[in-house]
Amino acid sequence: MSALTKMTQVEAKLFLRDARAPATLLGLPLALLLVFGLMPGVNDPDPKYGGRTGLAAVIAPMSVALMLAMLALTMFPNVLATYREKGVLKRLSASPVRPSRLLVAQLLVSLLSAAVVVLLIVGVGRLALHVELPRNLAAFAVSILLGTASLFGLGLLIAAFAPTGRAASGIGGAALFPLMALGGVWVAREQLPPLLGHVADVLPLGATLSSLREAWAGNWPSPLQLGSMVLVAVVCTAFAARFFRWE
Amino acid sequence: MAVIEVRDLHKRYGDKVAVEDVSFTVERGEIFGILGPNGAGKTTTVECLEGIRVPDRGTVSVLGLDPQRDKAEVRQRLGVQLQESQLPDKLRVGEALELYSSFYRNPADPEKLLTTLGLADKRDTGYKKLSGGQKQRLSIALALIGSPEVAVLDELTTGLDPQARRDTWDLIETVRDQGVTVLLVTHFMEEAERLCDRIAVIDAGRVVAVDTPHGLVAGVDDEQRVRFRPSGPIDDELLRALPAVRRVERHGGQVIVTGGGNVVAAVTSLLARNHVIAGELRVEQANLDDAFVALTGRKLEN
Q1: What is the pLDDT of residue A38?
Q2: A2, A129, B26, B28: which sits with the fewest CB atoms below 10 Å from its CB?
Q3: Maximum Cα–Cα distance for chain A, whole Å?
Q4: CA Rg value for chain B
Q5: Where are the domains of chain B?
Q6: How many CB atoms lie within 10 A of CB B261?
Q7: Within an 8 Å CB–CB cutoff, is residue A127 touching chain B?
């Protein structure tokens, strides 16, 4: 078995063994969906959202976007920074396998668990709450892909600079708040003043959320939203690659 | 054939010179020690061998290969135990060995290694729950999992209790008996004296001596110290007149005579002739500690 396959297997086991991370990852978005799903009127056609339900227009895309952000900005950098702090990466660099392989393995595990949770959010929403499926599936896939790339790019950057695992989750958590506030999570994007609306289209969490909402409604995200996600992904990853230390 | 060759190695970090001038060779099948105080440049030296660090000057060769140019090949054949490197908390002993065995061309049998290292009943225990000694043994197992020709072990008994330390020493001898050349980095005199065939003493980034433990001690001095409490008066001048005697000191009622190889016989027969009995008689020989002091001008702090 190749070293990368073996590493990915081990990382997956470690991820599942630490019950807190999978529970949070799965529990938070589903709880968000179910709690809002029980509120009266939220599943009725709403003229505010062009006759679509509040669940499909706002809550379901938000569950997906928040889950991705949590995974990419706090959990993923925490694991990498902890590995560096404990010398796990340095030990690997003295073996025939490059330590970057561990980073790739960890990324694969994160992406796989993100995919599972996305399917669960859409599936549970559909079956339990009759939330409509995203109307533009191609746009949905593109939004997930680019949103994931931009958020994990930012996560990599945090992992590159955080000295310890604890610091990494701290920085990630601290970054999450402004990204939520300015990203149309607390106040919906269309209720923000025009200037802040543009800010929400550019920041990675906001761009992901806006794109997902467009896809759910059957539209394509705007070039600004798509372009900013690509830009953030590329710039953050480049900086992370430049500054990442294995010890 | 030399397994490891280090020539005129120099490495600095910013303004700080970590390794000033280090040269030594390690022959196949020996346990070679690098002994020196903390901060002497021991770890930097072996990290250059492992290919983790790039030397500023000098040449390093492992099994005839350049650790920078032939990184992949050197890492296949060189087993490494790093100072202060840990594993993920929840990674189990058996999983760690299996994982690392997938990195090597010709891995050792993980089951056999677990048994040899006394970890067989810890196979399903997570790394975090292991004792210090068990963690250390696991890191030795990981250094051996690739069936290496050379193993570099950095401070492998630091933080272990005396029993675990002795067990680890036995283990290292077993490893060598299986044909693995061992490069041992240590700041413990006792460890170097007990295990090493030859030792390079490093101080402030320089090699100050390379010899067998016995040779290092003998090279320093043949001096011995005789301490005793005389039963009656004995004149210092009589003692000083003996050809073997170099110094005579008194501490309270104790006489301390320092001299060459036959000082013990000379002093005891002088006392007998004067009908003085030497109470609490003790003879102290120079050891590796004295050798270190003589070579570097200071004590090796543990």
Answers
A1: 86
A2: A2
A3: 62
A4: 24
A5: 2-218, 224-285
A6: 11
A7: no
In this prediction the ipTM stands at 0.88
**Residue B85 C-alpha, separation from nearest chain A C-alpha, in angstroms:** 4
Q: Tokens standing for A109?
A: 């595990």
**Amino acid at residue number A150:** S
Helix residue ranges per DSSP H, B18-84: 42-50, 71-77
**Which sign, positive or negative, has the C-alpha torsion A210, A212, A213, A215?**
positive
From the options 3.40.630.30, 3.40.190.290, 3.30.70.100, 3.40.350.10, give the CATH code of B224-285: 3.30.70.100
Q: How far is B211 from chain A (nearest CA, A)?
A: 29
- The model's pTM is 0.85
Among the listed residues A98, A57, A74, A206, the one whose alpha carbon sits nearest the alpha carbon of residue A146: A206
| Structural domain for A132, as ranges | 3-243
Q: Which residues, including other chains, have CB under 8 Å from residue A65's CB and lie 6 or more apart?
A: A147, A185, A205, A208, A209, A212
| Alpha-carbon span B301 to B192, nearest angstrom | 14
Q: Tell me how many domains chain A contains.
A: 1
Among partner residues B76, B86, B90, which is closest to A88 by beta-carbon distance? Answer: B86
Q: Does the beta-carbon distance from B87 to A97 stay under 8 Å? A: no
- The pLDDT score that the predictor gives to residue B40 is 87
Nearest to A94 among B72, B82, B88 (CB): B82
Residue of A nearest to B68 (CA): A94
- Dihedrals phi, psi of A130, to nearest 5 degrees: 55, 35
Q: Is B127 on the interface with A (CB under 8 A)?
A: no
What's the gap between Cα A115 and its chain centre? 10
Instruction: Determine, for residues B52 and A94 on separate chains, whether the beta-carbon distance falls below 8 Å.
Output: yes
Please give the full DSSP string across A158-174, using - where no structure is assigned: HHHH-SSHHHHHHHHHH
Task: Characterize A89-101 residue by residue with b for buried, 16 or more Cβ atoms within 10 angstroms of its Cβ, and e for exposed.
Answer: bbbbbbbbbbbeb
- Fold category of B2-218 in CATH: Rossmann fold (3.40.50)
For residues B128 and B110, give the distance between their C-alpha atoms in angstroms, rounded to a whole number.
20
Residues 6+ apart with CB under 8 A from B97: B110, B113, B114, B138, B141, B142, B145
pLDDT tens for A31-47 read: 999 898 888 888 888 88
Asked if residues A184 and A200 have their Cβ atoms less than 8 Å apart, the reply is yes
